[in-house]
Amino acid sequence: MLPRFELYQPTTLPEALGMLSETGGNVRPFAGGTNLIPDLRGGREQARKFVSLAGLDDLRFTRFANGRVEIGSLTTVSDLHRSHEVLRNAPALHASATAFAGHMVRCTATIAGNICYGSPSADLLPPLLSLDANVTLASAAGLRILPLSRFNLGYKQTALKPGEMMTQISWPQPARGTVQLFYKLGLRKGDAISVISAAVSLTLKQMVCTHARIALGSVAATVVRAERAEALLLGRELTEKLIGEAAELAADASAPIDDLRASKEYRLHTARVLVRRLLRQAAEGPGEAGSTRRSTEG
Amino acid sequence: METSKAIKLKVNGKQLELLAAPNSTLLEILRNNGHVEVKCGCEKGDCGACAVILDGEAVDSCLTLAWIADGSEVQTVKGIGTEATPHPLQTAFIEEGSVQCGYCIPGIIVAAKVLLDENPDPTDSDIRVALSGNLCRCTGYTRIFSAIHKAAQVMREGAQKNG
Amino acid sequence: MVETVPTATNSPNVQLHQVGKPLIRTDAPNKAYGNTLYAGDLMMPGMLYAKVFRADRPSALIVKVDTARARALEGVRCVLTAWDLPDRLVVTDIPGQTGGKTKNTAQPILAKERVRFFNEPIALIAADSEEIAASARDLIEVEYAPFPGVFDRAEALTAGAPLVDGDANVVAAYKIRKGDTERGFEEADLVIENSFRTQVQEQAFLEPEAGLAWMDDKNVLNIKVSTQVVEHFRAIADALGIPHNRVHIEAMYVGGGFGGKEGLTIEMMLALLAYNTRKPVRLVLTREESFVNHGNRHPFTLHYRSGVKKDGRITAMEVRLIADSGAYSKLSPYVLLYATVGAPGPYKVDNLKVDSVVAATNNLSTCAFRGFGTMQACVAYEGQMDEIAKSLGLTPLEVRQKNFIHTGDKNATGQKIESAVWSEQCAIQALEALGERAKGNDVVKIGRGLACYQQSYGRIRWFKDSSEAWVGIEVDGTVIVRCAVTDIGAGQSSSLAQIAAEVLGVPMEKVVTYFGDCTLNPLAGTSSASRALYMTGNATKMAATKVRDNLLEWAGRHFQVPPDDLQLVEFRVTAISDPARSMPIDELARRCAADGVHRHHLAMFKAPTSEGLDPETGQGEVFPDFTYGAHACEVAVDTETGEVTVLKSVGAHDVGQSLNPQSVAGQIEGSALMGQGFALCEEIIQRNGVLVTPSFSEYLIPTSEDVPETKAIILESRSGLGPFGSKGMGEPAFAPVAASIANAVADAIGVRIFELPITSEKVINALARKASGQVKMH
């Protein structure tokens, strides 16, 4: 049973933005609801006014424009999983959409909902961060675009202001030959909150790294980019030794905690392992689509 | 704004007009209006017992607000097949011994039907992914997987016959 | 039809026409069509909705419970606390038994002076709507005072530990003293000692507890509920102070039980509210409430010391077991007894010393769960067997072959095993079925594990268990079976239809089983202890056989042949010596009816009894019989992340005789996955008694993506005590699974993890210990 609340159902984006700004009090955008509904039921969500975005079909899209991939905020995780374009252009994101919850939740949960919930275990965040994604936030006052890296501020805290909602996520088309990989480690193979997840995006030109992104989930209050590890790789050939050092730096960039699922030592250990593994795999060259959490290969 | 309003749902082909409050879920609305075949297992999207087909997609009805489902088509296990006209999935589940306590079955049949509608020749992996949101505690899934394969084969053969 | 008890033979000595065939279960079609009603699907006009107010802490004194604001809320019809219930209202008794009570099984229905576990019920509310009942619940205020709790079972046994309930934290203790362990250890070439720990597991049935209760126009309290036991009507009647014959419990089809619905769950709550309001009352628990409302699996610490000869023979075994009862005793004495009796496993151990104890703590309740103590012991004794094998350079199969108990041997409590013991055949077949070994690499290691077991079926003998069933044939040849057995998903009611169909020669579709009703059906006892087929199946077979005998007596006179020349098959009665002497069964039934032949029979089947165990030696006959089998699996372990993937999982069991092989295979396959969850990812975690895994998001059971290649192998010795020589299967199939996976992981990585569940983190830690040389060498 859910507590009583008010639900507004706009049919256009301007209507939605109007409701978000004009409705007094704590009013929140409501996308798929796959986190909000359990939180309402469990007493973890305090808002009692919601603007349903379900009527805004225009915000469900995947397109390419000006060298960027643009995803509408209400694109469902299932849309991402089924999209051949996403599989081709953003295989790590595709892998995270495949590893996300279970089938029915994927059909309802949205990309914006996953980002705005602000949990460091959000499955889509590491790949999006590794893609240098931007988010577009709209309000009655207009639009602003933020890098995703500046959007998640803390544990379940984002830069979303009252009256704002996310309309789009975009990123630059990766350079030709960029390998994008993702791995999610959970306590069971299906439908689990990650113990740790990792996404790597790597471009090599004649064995030399021209671009590197390493993002880790569930190792800090927000998803982290291992920027010193990335800087270490830039302009250099990826030897086993260098990969090991980068993995070490990536672990240093984490600040994991002990929780129900794992200890911080284990997360540090697996951060090293996963980053090393994904970098090694990426260095072996493009052609492999993003790995999934079911891999038993070393 | 807080008060109930009438919403329209087409459930298993029948047009219904139901009174719903903003905080009603599709699960509650269906169960309170003659559709107890939609089961409640966890109310937070972990178990899939409440799965229904909503405008062609499998969703957890416990995570769907009734107002947001207004105007939609809903199919439950009873709309998928009946004793008089069973769906090949139901026949296969019965024949393969895939049913034990039966509580997960309505949700699993929903997820399996959506799978077979989209993918007439699913692999083992396709089936596992399609059922990834459905928990079953009794059967260990093995006979559920084989029943889905069997139903898929029956449906493919039926489609071939019909040209 | 002549039956003799076969001895370990493969050739059938009875001809079966329907038993042993994968016929469609009577309950399957309606479940597949969504027609089957469960307890939470029931509604009545004027129905009230119930909610339960629970303590928010695991240990406290209750100073004051203020329900005034709750009672005053419009739409609230009833609020009950312990102060509204006379002190006789305590929950007690062994589920399903005919009145035998043991000490220490009392539990308050609602907490009065003390809170002893997290979310212990304090008040009940009934209101016009679920929303009002929930609001009323939020208006209840409790003043608590601190009271120290104890959350560690070893600590609970020390002097000075806070007392949980009564004057001691020892809930029960047993010992077995058999032979001479001192001499046995002296004779040993090697002594191996290890400690194992198993965790609390949640049954996680898909259907949360649900029910509807109302008073009817005969002043009878009716309760339709999801339960494994309808005999609870007695405890409810006693608690309400009404006669036993005025409580009518009907069990609906149960959406999974596994022992979690064996104790009283919500029946008492429903009864109290319906009785007090005189209106129908509905209660359906949320998943989070379900987790704290019924007892879970007892966690165990198991210390094993084994003396062995170089050739692998066990010369002596010393075992210490410590289990956690939670705050109230419930079935803990029996879970401990099962673990004690099962401590050595399916092996001949002539010199045996077992000391076991179960302690009360302020942790969540523990109670019945598939395996009931025996499967926890299996994790330990099968781990120990593999450690022995490793130390001696024997294979896991070899060391077991050296020690298997055989028919005619005496088990741990000196009970002679009469039925077939096919552990070896099952082990060989299970291992063979693993096929070709998967290929590992530098990082991913492949391992294989075997586990055998001995699991009882049928209840403890001194409960003097019995079951009744009624069978009748109508004049159109259709058959009715009436038996109060509860159907919890394993085909309990369908099996009875199949048995009656077999005996009376009518197709199964012509049999209807009326089940689960404590008043209108003959009482059958619990669906637990792997007893349902054994007890209710035998009762049904006895009743059907008497009806058959009566019909054939008439037919014999009619056809002028001796009755044992007649058979009932495929809806005809036919003389074997002259098939022309034949008629359809409906005609037979009609003509028998016209001639006053008794076409019904009520039979009672009684299990063998005994008077208990010797308190000093632990010797005595505890169970009617045992099932034997094996589970084998193959795993892949990623030695960098620690992740364990089960690749293949095979269960091979001697079921005596399968009624419906699909159902038997279903038990094996379902057990394989439930056991895998216990081995790898399931754990109810409490921090100082507070549950921190309250839902399916934190408590992880295996999903479709976790399923390995699974195989069920059925062996049939026809030596069981059940109908047609069958043995109980519900728990046996589950017993060895986790042990086989733990053994496989140890095989893969060369070091054992002694504490379940085997998470990936534990694998990494074990590998680190091995690398740094910290692993104890024998």
CATH class assignment of the domain at 1-10 and 414-456 and 623-778 in chain C: Alpha Beta
* CATH H-level homologous superfamily name of the largest domain in chain B: Beta-grasp domain
Question: Any idea of the CATH topology of the domain at 1-10 and 414-456 and 623-778 in chain C?
Answer: Aldehyde Oxidoreductase, domain 4
What profile does the largest beta sheet of chain B have? 5 strands, mixed
Mean pLDDT of chain B: 97
Beta-strand portion of chain B reads 15-25%
> Into which percent range does the helicity of residues of chain B fall?
25-40%
Q: How many separate domains of chain B?
A: 2
H/I helix tally of chain C = 18
Total count of helical runs of at least 4 residues of chain B: 6
The CATH topology name of the largest domain in chain B reads: Ubiquitin-like (UB roll)
CATH level-4 homologous superfamily of the domain at 1-10 and 414-456 and 623-778 in chain C: Aldehyde oxidase/xanthine dehydrogenase, molybdopterin binding domain
Chain pair forming the biggest interface: B-C, 51 and 55 residues
Please state the overall shape of chain C, judged from the principal axes of the Cα atoms.
globular
Helicity range of chain C: 25-40%
Low-confidence stretches of chain B: none
